[in-house]
């Protein structure tokens, strides 16, 4: 498909790199469907010998890793979407990692000096040029301020934005091709997935956005000293540099250090759950990737959160739907579960019998206590995929966060039941929504909406009257059996036309022909009259 090459002319070099990598890893279906094999000046090459024996998901995973950060992020998103992909694909994509070899200090230093306005050695009392972490987007360094505080300095990798922006443009075009070439993929909303990916990556490319996210979440727990967020040092932050407090915590999966620190793991699991659900269900904004490296155990049974490049947001309506879902799961209500799923996915014509059987099988397979939330949510999204339903993106992000958080809590307490632990937060959310103040707020919102609609009504009526006067109101009506009505109208019109001709002949032309006294004209006129009357009789019988 040469159209791809023309649309992506500005990114032809990157497109050629992508095509070469995909062909090299034998990802033939994607290459052929997107028309990449026919790009001008593309080197002719065959798949690498070391990948020919691998499965298609394995080849794709290796190709994604070779393609760089944009594709790695997209692969990681897909790994958390069992509503879109089968287990063979999600399990393979879960192996994707963004840990890469660090950029040499001499390459990072000029950019960092430019952003800080001076050398790191001048800004900081101590600065370790060996990174403590290196990912596909940024590298992290330890440092100490002149005032004594230990900090981390996060620095974007150089020249990254240009590559990612080119990738996003090409992937957006690829999503349009997918919807055109694979109509059955339209339900997965590939363009919406690309929009979400672009939004997330653009957020990660601006470290000021991460700093704002950190402070936004920290405000939720203001006044609580058992939930810790790092302090942001704004004077040294910019789009490419983030300086924040160093939180020296213990990963929840480090059993030896947790035991040595005297951490109460069950208490920590409950606090972590309360914090996550407080963010998601009460406030509607939450940490979207609470893996063991981002949730740290601190002395005194405190819990600290770090890394806020991506956060999730839930509208009030979504939060209400989530409460209904939790209720349906706990009550083993298959019909309620099915109703929530249909409401979320917006599906209008699913196989209802198949969906009902799937929902019933789902509640029966998760009837034991305690419930494994990670397994419950994964199976729920699998049920959606098997019934050709796709989850909304915001809920997919929440489910990924819940599954990840559930895994962390199970490291702390193998018998952890997140559903039971969620009880206090769910009750608090319900009390907030259905308290007098909550109902009053809903009533006020309804009143405002009705007032707004009422205030617009006179304008709408006036506009309709103007359109009627101008004859510009168009009404579209779909009538079943319209073809029969049309044929009836056509026959009626024919009868009227013939009747008019016969009547005109009988009343106007015939007397004049008789006056002329020409026998031939009289004979012809009478024949026309008789034929016309006969035709009208036949039309009347064929109603």
TrEMBL record:
Keyword Transmembrane: yes
InterPro entries: ABC1_dom, Kinase-like_dom_sf, UbiB_kinase
Record's keyword terms, sorted: Membrane, Transmembrane, Transmembrane helix
Location of the ABC1 atypical kinase-like domain: 95-339
TM region positions: 520-539
Alphabetical list of SUPFAM superfamilies matching this protein: Protein kinase-like (PK-like) (SSF56112)
Homology family: Belongs to the protein kinase superfamily. ADCK protein kinase family.
UniProt-recorded name of the protein: ABC1 atypical kinase-like domain-containing protein
Species of origin: Methylobacterium hispanicum
């Amino acid at each position: 498909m040469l159209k791809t090459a023309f649309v992506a002319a500005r990114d032809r070099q990157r497109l050629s790199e992508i095509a070469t990598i995909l062909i090299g890893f034998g990802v033939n279906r994607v290459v052929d469907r997107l028309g990449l094999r026919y790009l001008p000046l593309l080197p002719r090459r065959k798949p690498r010998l070391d990948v020919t024996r691998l499965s298609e998901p394995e080849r794709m995973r290796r190709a994604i890793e070779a393609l760089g950060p944009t594709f790695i992020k997209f692969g990681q998103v897909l790994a958390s979407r069992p509503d879109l992909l089968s287990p063979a694909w999600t399990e393979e994509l879960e192996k994707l990692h963004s840990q890469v070899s660090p950029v040499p200090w001499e390459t990072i230093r000029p950019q960092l000096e430019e952003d800080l306005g001076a050398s790191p050695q001048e800004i900081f009392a101590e600065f370790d040029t060996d990174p403590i972490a290196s990912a596909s987007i940024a590298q992290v360094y330890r440092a100490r301020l002149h005032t004594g505080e230990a900090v981390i300095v996060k620095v974007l990798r150089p020249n990254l934005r240009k590559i990612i922006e080119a990738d996003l443009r090409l992937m957006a075009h690829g999503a349009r091709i997918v919807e055109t070439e694979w109509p059955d993929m339209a339900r997965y909303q590939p363009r919406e997935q690309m929009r979400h990916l672009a939004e997330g990556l653009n957020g990660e490319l601006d470290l000021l956005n991460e700093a704002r996210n950190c402070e936004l979440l920290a405000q939720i727990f203001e006044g609580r000293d058992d939930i810790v967020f790092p302090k942001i040092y704004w004077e040294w932050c910019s789009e490419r540099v983030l300086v924040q407090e160093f939180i020296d915590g213990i990963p929840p999966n480090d059993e030896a250090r947790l035991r040595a620190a005297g951490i109460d793991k069950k208490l920590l699991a409950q606090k972590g759950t309360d914090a996550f659900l407080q963010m998601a269900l009460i406030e509607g904004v939450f940490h979207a990737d609470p893996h063991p490296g981002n949730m740290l155990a601190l002395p005194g049974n405190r819990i600290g959160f770090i890394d806020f490049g991506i956060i999730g947001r839930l509208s009030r309506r979504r939060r209400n739907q989530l409460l209904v879902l939790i209720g349906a799961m706990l009550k083993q209500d298959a019909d309620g579960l099915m109703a929530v799923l249909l409401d979320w996915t917006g599906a209008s014509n699913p196989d209802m019998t198949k969906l009902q059987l799937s929902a019933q099988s789902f509640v029966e397979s998760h009837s034991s206590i305690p419930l494994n939330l990670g397994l419950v949510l994964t199976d729920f999204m699998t049920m959606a995929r098997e019934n050709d339903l796709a989850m909304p993106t915001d809920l997919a992000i929440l489910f990924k966060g819940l599954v990840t958080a559930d895994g962390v809590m199970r490291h702390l307490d193998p018998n952890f039941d997140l559903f039971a632990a969620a009880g206090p937060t769910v009750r608090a959310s319900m009390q907030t929504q259905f308290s007098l103040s909550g109902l009053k707020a809903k009533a006020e919102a309804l009143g405002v909406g009705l007032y707004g609609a009422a205030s617009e009504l006179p304008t709408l009526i006036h506009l309709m009257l103007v359109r009627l006067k101008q004859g510009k109101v168009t009404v579209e009506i779909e009538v079943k059996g319209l073809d029969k009505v049309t044929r009836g109208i056509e026959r009626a019109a024919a009868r009227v036309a013939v009747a008019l001709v016969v009547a005109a002949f009988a009343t106007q032309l015939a007397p004049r022909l008789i006056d002329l006294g020409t026998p031939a004209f009289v004979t012809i006129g009478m024949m026309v009259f008789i034929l016309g009357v006969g035709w009208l009789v036949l039309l009347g019988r064929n109603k």
